[in-house]
Amino acid sequence: MTVALYDQQIENGTVWDGEQGWMIAAPAATRAEALHISNALMKGFLPEPLE
Fold first, then answer.
1. Where are the beta strands (DSSP E) in 1-51?
2. So where are the chain's domains?
3. Residue 23 contacts residue 38 (beta carbons within 8 Å)
4. Would you say 21 and 5 are in contact if contact means Cβ atoms under 8 Å apart?
5. Under 8 Å CB-to-CB from 17, ≥6 apart: which residues?
6. Which of 14, 25, 39, 51 could make an S-S bridge to 6, C-beta 3.0–4.6 Å?
7. Dist CA 10 CA 28 (whole Å)
8. What's the angle, vertex CA 45, arms to CA 37 and CA 13, rounded to 5?
9. What percent of the chain has pLDDT over 70?
């Protein structure tokens, strides 16, 4: 499961930004594992993989 919390508003809606928002992924024991889960689940929505 991945949850993206949005903080930043733009003119046409909301955009997620690693500097302005939070990403929660579970179950994950490490940041690397959380990124792997998030990238797999959100690949259709992300312009490029999260780092």
1. 2-5, 8-10, 13-15, 22-25
2. 23-51
3. yes
4. yes
5. 7, 8
6. 14
7. 31
8. 125
9. 67
